[in-house]
Design goal:
The protein has 43 helices and two strands. Strands 1-2 form a two-stranded antiparallel ribbon. The protein has about 575 residues and is an all-alpha fold. Among the domains are: about 190 residues, Leucine-rich Repeat Variant, CATH 1.25.10; about 70 residues, no CATH class. InterPro entries: ARM-like, ARM-type_fold, NOP9, Pumilio_RNA-bd_rpt. This is Nucleolar protein 9 isoform X3. Pfam families: PUF_NOP9 (PF22493). One of its GO terms (molecular function) is RNA binding.
């Protein structure tokens, strides 16, 4: 059916591509299309490339066509389609899919600055760079198909998909989906990337064009690292030769600019460790506290911290930032603190010191009894006095922690950054203090943490961290006894319970199943609970206990055997 529809669409490809409804239909069809019909539609659009690429709806048709390459590119797919064409008696287009892509790349290369600077055309450039490199970045894969077409009527600012400063992600990693491409693609990728060098100033300062360079750096980092390093050096060299800043390197001016700072974030993430070390020493050393306080420059600083992988770089960075952690939190830039903690986790240095500084920053270091409250404070990113609602007079002299008062208080709202902070701390070499604080939570508080979209990942860290022993894990999770039904009937809690079940011994599984069995009908009626009941094999447990135990024993035996193989 798709094959026949695509033959009808070919003659009207341009009109359909530039119509909202037609564009949506074409995107769906391209996602299902065999090779030859897709090539014919592509060839029909090629003579009107500029019109389609710079149209708010047409651009998504071109993107969808390009994103079919991982599915269609390759000898097996081409041979299959050739056989189909022979059966249908159609000659098909003279150009192969590879030739069409290379032709598109050549046309874009001829007018590179125009396409990169156009609000819609820049999307084609970014997708083309990924396809030529044989790597589709996570941001592209995560976008639902329908959302591509729905942006046809959005203003340009929304089309660019720019998060506000407060919504910027704490880290952006390159997690590509790789696929094989011919050598000609990589050659053309290098040709396109060379175009950035001709007008480097435009790609650094122009908001729209800058995104193309950012994507190029991510793709080149994965596929052509030497050329990526060359491009990074060109960016740094250009910025370093601009007019001097009053307070240091010219680079500092661009770190405070909204457009160029985003490009520099990507540069910092893809630089090799030796080059990153020299960049820090030549341009950033002595300026980190100023950058941490700036509403824009604190984000490139976070990327610098995300890129730290050596003790030689972490040492001066930690020495410079450690005295101002509380001030940075007070300024509303917790991402800097979380990134520094992440660097300590990754490098394996300064872990005890940074935890001590965090306790001081959240006002729970002294008296020592307050340290038991660190998990709720870290999770909510609130100081002790704020979290427990102490008056100014009560907070003037730090008082002992009141366990009864803390137990009676519901857990505050867990923030994403607070959850990330706890996950990092649980992966430290000695997470004992955080585990003791988690163990001090009541069952209801721990349940609230597990049911929270962000907090549930803290439970994941408890279950997966190699630093947490089985005994420590059991001591924390035992507080969930009596809460398993509520966990099972929660969107995020049910996922946590599944993870707990996967790692539980037979005795613990019996306890969980027995508690869930008391509310079997309630679980079966619940949207999330019935999945948990099926995973636990609750019906078998209630009706054929002996068979259930044999089944679970066999599962445990297979798991032990697998773990033994993995350890070897």
């Amino acid at each position: 059916m798709v094959h026949n529809i695509m033959k009808e669409v070919e003659a009207q490809a341009l009109a359909l591509s530039t119509n909202r409804t037609g564009s949506e239909m074409l995107q769906e069809l391209l996602g299902l299309s065999p090779l030859k019909p897709l090539c014919r539609v592509w060839a029909a659009l090629r003579s009107n490339l500029r019109t389609v690429a710079c149209h708010r709806c047409g651009v998504h048709v071109l993107q969808s066509a390009l994103l079919q390459l991982p599915r269609l590119l390759g000898s097996a797919a081409e041979e299959e389609e050739e056989e189909k064409e022979e059966e249908d008696g159609n000659d098909g287009p003279t150009e192969t899919l590879e030739e069409l892509v290379l032709g598109l790349a050549a046309e874009v290369c001829d007018d590179f600055l125009f396409y990169c600077g156009d609000t819609h055309g820049s999307f084609v450039v970014r997708t083309l760079l990924q396809v030529l490199g044989g790597t589709v970045l996570e941001s592209e894969r995560a976008r639902p198909r329908g959302s591509q077409s729905s942006v046809c009527d959005l203003p340009a600012a929304h089309v660019l998909n720019l998060p506000s400063e407060a919504q910027r992600a704490p880290a952006r990693e390159c997690k590509p989906a790789d696929f094989e491409v011919p050598e000609t693609f990589l050659n053309r990728l290098q040709d396109l990337s060379s175009c950035f060098l001709k007008d480097i100033a435009v790609f650094i300062t122009d908001k729209i064009s800058s995104f193309c360079l950012q994507v190029a750096l991510q793709v080149l980092h994965c596929k052509l690292p030497q050329f990526c390093a060359h491009l990074c050096n060109a960016v740094i060299s250009y910025l370093s030769t601009c007019s001097s800043s009053v307070d240091g390197s010219p680079l500092l001016l661009f770190l405070r600019d909204q457009t160029s700072s985003r490009l520099l974030e990507q540069v910092l993430l893809v630089l090799e460790p030796p080059r990153l070390q020299s960049l820090f020493e030549e341009h950033l050393q002595g300026q980190l506290q100023t950058l941490a306080a700036h509403p824009i420059a604190n984000f490139p600083l976070q990327r610098l911290l995300d890129a730290v992988t050596t003790p030689e770089l972490l040492s001066p960075v930690f020495e410079e930032l450690s005295p101002v952690l509380e001030a940075v939190l007070a300024q509303g830039h917790p991402g800097v603190v979380i990134a520094l903690v992440g660097a300590c986790r990754r490098v394996g240095a300064y872990q005890a010191k940074v935890l001590e500084l965090l306790l001081e920053a959240f006002h729970c270091a002294e008296p020592s009894s307050r340290q038991l409250a660190c998990v709720p404070l870290f999770a909510t990113l609130m100081a002790y006095e704020v979290y427990y609602g102490l008056t100014e007079e009560e907070g003037a002299v730090p008082a002992e922690h009141q366990v009864e008062t803390a137990s009676a208080r519901a857990l505050g709202e867990v923030t994403v950054l607070g959850s990330l902070l706890l996950q990092h701390l649980l992966h430290f070499s000695t997470p004992g203090l955080v585990l003791r604080s988690l163990g001090a939570l009541t069952g209801l508080q721990l349940l609230a943490l597990a049911q929270s979209p962000a907090g549930s990942h803290v439970l994941d860290a408890i279950l997966t961290s190699p630093s947490v022993t089985r005994k420590q894990r059991r001591r924390v999770l035992q507080n969930l006894k009596g809460q398993y039904v509520a966990l099972a009937c929660s969107r995020h809690g049910s996922r946590v319970l599944d993870a707990i079940w996967s790692g539980a011994a037979l005795g613990a599984r019996k306890e969980i199943a027995a508690e869930l069995g008391e509310k079997n009908q309630e679980l079966i009626r619940d949207a999330f609970g019935h999945h948990v009941a099926r995973n636990v094999a609750l019906t078998t447990f209630l009706k054929r206990r002996e068979a259930w135990e044999q089944q679970q024993g066999a599962v445990a035996k297979r798991r032990r055997a697998l773990n033994s193989i993995l350890e070897d």
